[in-house]
Amino acid sequence: MVICVVFALLTAVSNAMASVLQRRAAMDAPAGRAMHLSLLGYLLHRKIWLAGIGMTIVAAVCQATALDSGPIALVQPLFIIELPIALLLGGLVMRRRMARRSWVAVGVVTAGLVVSLACAAPSGGTQTAPADLWALALIAVGGFEAVLLAAALRGRGQTRAALLGLAAACGYSLTAALMKQAMAELSRGAGAFFSTWQLYATAAAGVASLFLLQNALQAGTLVASQPMLTMGDALISVCLGALLFGETIRLGWWLVPQIIGLLAIAVGYVELSSSSLATALAQPSRETPENMPMHPAES
Q1: How far is Cα 92 from Cα 86, in angstroms, rounded to an integer?
Q2: Cα dihedral sign for 104, 106, 109, 112?
Q3: Residue-range domain boundaries for the chain
Q4: CA quadruple 125, 128, 131, 136: dihedral positive or negative?
Q5: How far is the C-alpha of 209 from the C-alpha of 214, rounded, in Å?
Q6: What is the average per-residue pLDDT within 293-298?
Q7: What's the CA angle centered on 243, arms 239 and 244, to 5 degrees?
Q8: Three-state SS annotation for 139-203
Q9: What is the pLDDT of residue 119?
Q10: Which residues contact 283 (CB under 8 A, 6 or more apart)?
Q11: Would you give the end-to-end CA distance of the chain in angstroms?
């Protein structure tokens, strides 16, 4: 379990570093390269952008290791700390101080996460799930995604951003579940690993989730999308962990402090997402068009 927590935290730190480094590289891109393949060529010659890609790869390896050594219901909620870490690193890179209220919000988010996970105590579970449970999970996730997307298409502004943020969270949770099973197949050898359908479904779900997240950021502000993304990922991951792998959390009166912790996280995230530093990290760069939002802090 210690290995699981350590690598989950390393994933969060790596993702946060990747976001900040890639954001810093994009800020210096010439305006004429926006929305052109030449932008990629420019970034490929930027060491800071390549460093960001390297951190993304590190994050993927760390997440796979964490999921292979512990329950998904523990790994995914730990990614809640990505935004606070990204803001701390972004402040250093952009040479901007975090406001006192933001520091308080970081403390509230951290305390809420510790209380929620300590009281939930995710445990148990298997490394693989049978085909019938996978079919049930895919139907449930697909149906939920369809409802969210249909509602998002009818909504506007912050409402659409919130719905798309939740849809992205659902996709990232499914991606983690697929990755967990794919990693379990690795113990049977490279042949089993590369022949399992979950490996390729992981890539497809990840790309689709990233697409949904970018649209969520384009539709509204971080205040609408980020809390839905964060809370949704944690809660849906707990559900998928229970359904697919038989993971458990404490119930009964333990739910009271868990809910209090989740509310604290939500309040802290709203404050952080509305801070001037979060806005600076998430908004389009000064030399790129407004329809090119950046990924603030999620994998």
Answers
A1: 10
A2: negative
A3: 2-282
A4: positive
A5: 9
A6: 41
A7: 115
A8: HHHHHHHHHHHHHHHHCCHHHHHHHHHHHHHHHHHHHHHHHHHHHHHHCCCHHHHHHCHHHHHHH
A9: 95
A10: 293, 294
A11: 21
pLDDT of amino acid 289: 37
The Cα–Cα gap between 29 and 285 comes to 9
Instruction: Report the C-alpha gap between 275 and 280 in whole angstroms.
Output: 9
- 262 residue type, one letter: L
Q: How far is CA 7 from CA 2, 63, 113, 151, in A?
A: 9, 7, 17, 36
Angstrom distance (rounded) from CA 161 to CA 232 = 13
132-138: which pairs have CB atoms within 8 A and are 24 or more residues apart?
A: 133/243, 133/244, 134/244, 136/243, 137/174, 137/177, 137/240, 137/243, 137/244, 138/174
- Which one is predicted more confidently, 283 or 255? 255
Beta bridge partners of 123: 248
Specify the higher pLDDT residue, 161 or 281.
161
